[in-house]
Amino acid sequence: MDMREMVDKVKKGEPLYGVSTLSPHMQGVAARNSRYSGVFLHMVPWFNFVNHDQHGVDTSKYFQQAERELEAERVANGQNA
């Protein structure tokens, strides 16, 4: 996803990486498996289709951008603080 999609999700209050039905422990297991799957790709192809939020990305940039956009929209609409 790009910045626009992620910021839109933040503004709507949706989870950034979707909702998973797995426990946090199993999401962690899936994240670790996919993180190192490229090492042995030549021996065992291992693909991860699990939805988890452990992507190693600093998500604060999406929240900061959403705050800036919401503030700009508020100012554009002529609302005061």
Give the class from helix and strand content and strand pairing: mainly alpha
Question: How many helix segments?
Answer: 3
Task: Give the averaged pLDDT, no decimals.
Answer: 80
Low-confidence spans: none
* Major sheet attributes: none
Order of helices and strands: HHH
Radius of gyration: 18 Å
In total, the number of strands is 0
Percent range for β-strand residues: under 5%
The helix fraction, in percent, is 40-55%
Shape: elongated
Terminal CA distance: 32 Å
State the gist of this model:
The chain is an all-alpha fold. The chain has three helices and no strands.
Can you describe what's shown?
This protein is mostly helical. The chain is about 50% helix and about 0% strand. It has three helices and no strands. The chain has helices at about 5-10, 25-35, 60-75. The longest helix has 17 residues, at about 60-75. The two termini are about 30 Å apart.
